[in-house]
């Protein structure tokens, strides 16, 4: 059985997935959402890869350098051994800010004996839509497509370039490197420079990790998840990607394949809350700024998602020449969901704006801008809360009165009231309180199903929906309210299978869901904890953590039976939830953990 046994490297501009045997099977350059240069993960034959091939005598092990996003893959047959340190450069340059070029550096560290291997270097540019050609020059190997020679890729190395390109046997007797860059490099690329960049990049990550708050439980999981989330942050704008990939299927052989290399506004409130809790307020603030910058003028529609460079049109296309992950066709780029109407988005936005007012000092101009946005959102909600929508799960057929969308409309007005109270606008508090009460009364009257003793997926439904578990965390209902407790138990009984949660089990556009949606299991864990089932919640959490891959990474979905990871990878929402839940069990107790400082000293010595 195949699993998503990949590590991710990146530099807040782009990223790459590296298999547990050291193959780069996914990378887009120069940016996260650019066309792929390696895409074997989406088509074994056509996608393109960068493999390190050793004979069967070698044992291969992989781990991250502690508290870093530098990935180590070791090859050892008992006598001959070497280590490959993979990373994308990112570090601070004096007076020039952050340096994060679209480069992948593979540093081959000699360990012992006479290790030998082959390189299978097969870049396939532009999603492999045209043939890629390779030529060897004195300085580099250049790869380009027959139709776009200027859109090229450059490989620099101190190995024999012809041997690299022809997959001939290479012997290692001292450190070596291979650097793949979207740009032609201006400075001479030698082993000393690559070693220096490795040290600078590792120091950058160690320094970043050192400033993560330490907690009494699950600190290791918190740090790895925080580092993963940082990798999924686009430095230029502050956007946070949902995941680094496209079209990794929710279930093998099905059509639930989507492009997640975009920024969903819905993720924003959790990003802000969680990053602030672990001491990474700069990510929280930059993401808030991204959200504010994409919010349109008063009368323009607010989208549920945007491109990482503020793009509004995310036209969906199918790459018909790709067979898909394990033949799970189609492979999509772009995402048609950007046009959908989802009323919960207004509550998410207002929660972010409220957190911004509460947590950060704003200029007068910024505060006035946010206040205008607040009043605009209230008007939009007032006009739309009674209408059906597509819901949080982006159902593509008919619209319904989804309970979660109604709850988030209430959240929008509730947070608007709180903002008005913070800035002493009593007139608006008095004006908006009746609207919040009308929405709340409507939900209690129409979303509660007396027969099943639970809030259900939509008005008039009898099925459960895991998103309703968020009612309590958003403040709509208290954890000791009988209705919420009954909803938690009813949701657990209907949607929990083998310790994992469905989103829902009723049929949608593509049939009945067949895999577990990872974040929903976290929502159930948090809800069980909230209603007093703390031991049950912690056991469920530890069981869930055991289903990560060998590096502690999670995708979007998990197969109920085999526990294999499915869906786009690594998933920001999953890792945000790990942090949030781990902090919950730690109950916010910060320790004076000096292990990170010790690690920095060890790595620099």
Please describe the structure with a list of short key phrases separated by commas or semicolons.
single chain, 605 residues, alpha+beta, Beta-galactosidase, Chain A, domain 5, Glycosyltransferase, 2 domains, 8-stranded antiparallel beta sheet, 4-stranded antiparallel beta sheet, globular, disordered C terminus
The strand order across the widest sheet is 6-7-8-11-17-15-14-13
Give the distance, in angstroms, between the N- and C-terminal Cα atoms.
42 Å
- DSSP E strands, number: 28
CATH class bucket of the largest domain: Mainly Alpha
Major sheet characteristics: 8 strands, antiparallel
Give the overall shape: globular
Mean pLDDT: 92
Number of helices: 14
Strand content: 15-25%
**Radius of gyration from CA coordinates:** 25 Å
Question: Can you walk me through this structure?
Answer:
- Helix 11 (518-530) packs antiparallel against helix 12 (534-545).
- The strands form nine sheets. This protein has an eight-stranded antiparallel beta sheet.
- The radius of gyration is 25 Å and the shape is globular.
- The protein starts with 5 loop residues before the first strand and ends with a helix.
- It is an alpha+beta fold.
- It has 14 helices and 28 strands.
- Mean pLDDT is 92; it is low at 588-605.
Write the layout of secondary structure elements.
Layout: E1 6-10, E2 15-19, E3 24-28, E4 36-38, E5 49-53, E6 59-64, E7 71-76, E8 81-87, E9 91-93, E10 97-99, E11 103-112, E12 116-122, E13 132-136, E14 141-145, E15 152-157, H1 161-165, E16 170-171, E17 176-181, H2 191-210, H3 219-231, E18 263-264, H4 268-277, H5 281-294, E19 305-306, E20 317-318, E21 332-333, H6 344-359, H7 364-384, H8 403-422, H9 426-446, E22 448-449, E23 454-455, H10 482-495, E24 496-497, E25 500-501, E26 516-517, H11 518-530, H12 534-545, E27 557-558, E28 565-566, H13 572-586, H14 595-604
Antiparallel strand pairs: 1-2, 2-3, 3-4, 5-12, 6-7, 7-8, 8-11, 9-10, 11-17, 12-16, 13-14, 14-15, 15-17, 18-19, 20-21, 22-23, 24-25, 26-27, 27-28
Helix pairs in contact: 2-14, 3-13, 4-5, 4-6, 4-13, 6-7, 6-8, 7-8, 8-9, 11-12, 11-13
């Amino acid at each position: 059985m195949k699993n998503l046994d990949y590590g991710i490297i990146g530099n807040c501009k782009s990223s790459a997935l590296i298999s547990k045997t050291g193959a780069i099977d996914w990378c887009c350059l120069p940016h996260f959402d650019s066309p792929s240069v390696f895409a074997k993960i989406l088509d074994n034959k056509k996608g393109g890869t960068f493999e390190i091939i050793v004979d069967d005598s070698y044992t291969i092990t992989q781990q991250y350098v502690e508290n870093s996003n530098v990935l180590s893959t070791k090859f050892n047959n008992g006598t001959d051994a070497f280590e490959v340190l993979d990373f994308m450069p990112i570090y601070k340059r004096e007076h020039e800010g952050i340096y994060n070029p679209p480069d992948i550096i593979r540093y081959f560290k000699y360990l012992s004996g006479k290790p030998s291997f082959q390189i299978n270097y097969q870049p396939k540019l532009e999603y492999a839509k045209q043939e890629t050609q390779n030529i060897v020059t004195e300085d580099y190997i250049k790869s380009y497509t027959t139709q776009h020679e200027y859109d090229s890729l450059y490989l620099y190395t101190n190995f024999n370039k012809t041997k690299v390109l022809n997959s001939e046997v290479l012997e290692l007797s001292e450190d070596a490197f291979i650097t793949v860059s979207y740009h032609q490099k201006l400075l001479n690329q030698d082993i000393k420079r690559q070693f220096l960049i490795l040290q600078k990049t590792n120091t950058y990550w160690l320094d970043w990790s050192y400033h993560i708050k330490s907690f009494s439980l699950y600190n290791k999981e918190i740090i790895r998840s925080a580092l993963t989330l940082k990798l999924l942050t686009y430095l230029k704008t502050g956007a946070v990607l949902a995941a680094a990939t496209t079209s990794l299927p929710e279930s093998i052989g099905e059509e639930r394949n989507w492009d997640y290399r975009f920024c969903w506004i819905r993720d924003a409130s959790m990003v802000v809350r969680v990053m602030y809790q672990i001491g990474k307020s700069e990510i929280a603030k930059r993401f808030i700024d991204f959200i504010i910058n994409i919010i349109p003028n008063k009368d323009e529609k607010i989208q549920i998602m945007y491109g990482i460079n503020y793009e509004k049109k995310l036209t969906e296309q199918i790459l018909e020449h790709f067979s898909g992950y394990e033949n799970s066709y189609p492979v999509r780029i772009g995402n048609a969901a950007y046009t959908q109407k989802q009323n919960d988005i207004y509550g998410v936005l207002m929660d972010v704006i409220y957190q911004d007012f509460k947590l950060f000092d704003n200029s007068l101009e910024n505060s006035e801008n946010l206040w205008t946005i607040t009043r605009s959102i209230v008007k939009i909600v007032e006009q739309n809360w009674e209408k059906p929508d597509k819901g949080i799960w982006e159902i593509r057929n008919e619209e319904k009165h989804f309970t979660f969308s109604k709850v988030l409309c209430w959240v929008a007005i509730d947070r608007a009231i709180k903002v008005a109270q913070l800035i002493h606008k009593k007139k608006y508090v008095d004006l908006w309180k009746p609207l919040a009460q009308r929405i709340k009364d409507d939900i209690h009257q129409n979303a509660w199903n007396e027969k099943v003793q639970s809030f259900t997926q939509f008005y008039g439904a009898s099925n459960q929906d895991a998103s309703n578990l968020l009612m309590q965390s958003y403040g709509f209902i208290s954890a000791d309210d009988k209705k919420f407790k009954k909803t938690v138990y009813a949701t657990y009984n209907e949607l929990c299978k083998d310790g994992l949660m469905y989103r829902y089990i009723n049929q949608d556009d593509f049939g009945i869901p067949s895999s577990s949606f990872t974040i929903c299991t976290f929502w159930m864990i948090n809800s069980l904890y909230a209603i007093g089932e703390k031991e049950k919640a912690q056991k469920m959490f530890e069981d869930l953590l055991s289903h990560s891959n060998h590096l502690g990474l999670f995708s979007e979905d998990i197969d109920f039976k085999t526990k294999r990871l499915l869906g786009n990878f690594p998933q920001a929402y999953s890792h945000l939830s790990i942090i949030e839940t781990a902090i919950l069990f730690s109950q916010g107790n910060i320790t004076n953990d000096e292990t990170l400082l010790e690690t920095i000293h060890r790595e620099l010595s």
